[in-house]
Amino acid sequence: MLSLREMEYIQAVKALGLREMRIIVRHILPNVLGPVIVIAASNFASAIIIEAGLSFLGVGVQPSMPSWGLMIKENYNFIITHHPALALAPGIAIMILVLAFNLLGNGLRDALDVRN
């Protein structure tokens, strides 16, 4: 927001005498909304990966609560032996969910882009 505040079009709007609140709502917020959505979606995806990683290491949620990281930890021994799908399915689910959050954030940024 600080870099947008110094842009020429904001200086022109200030020269026209518009109020600060109108400048923020009509000119600055639409230009900031896209990057904020992408960062928020990336933070959700990071939180999911961090939670799964901590649960896999045994530091996350308790074993009575379901967690994809805990599911991978419990079925880690089956990857090489009997049923690798028991451990691979939660990993693939994490991957798809993180990809979905990132694609959703990028799609919303493209849909709400004021420059096009």
Task: Describe it.
With 116 residues, the chain is mainly α. It has a domain at 33-111. It contains 5 helices and no strands. Helix 3 (20-57) runs parallel beside helix 4, helix 3 (20-57) packs antiparallel against helix 5 and helix 4 (68-74) runs antiparallel to helix 5. The longest helix has 38 residues, at 20-57. The protein is elongated. The chain starts with a helix and ends in a 5-residue tail after the last helix. The mean pLDDT is 85.
User: What is the helix content?
Assistant: over 70%
**Morphology call:** elongated
Uncertain regions spanning at least 5 consecutive residues:
none
The description of the largest β-sheet is: none
The helix/strand class is mainly alpha
**Structure summary, number of beta strands:** 0
Order of helices and strands: HHHHH
Rg, rounded, reads: 22 Å
Mean pLDDT across all amino acids: 85
What fraction strand? Answer: under 5%
How would you classify the quaternary structure? single chain
Count of DSSP H/I helices: 5
* Ends apart, CA distance between termini: 20 Å
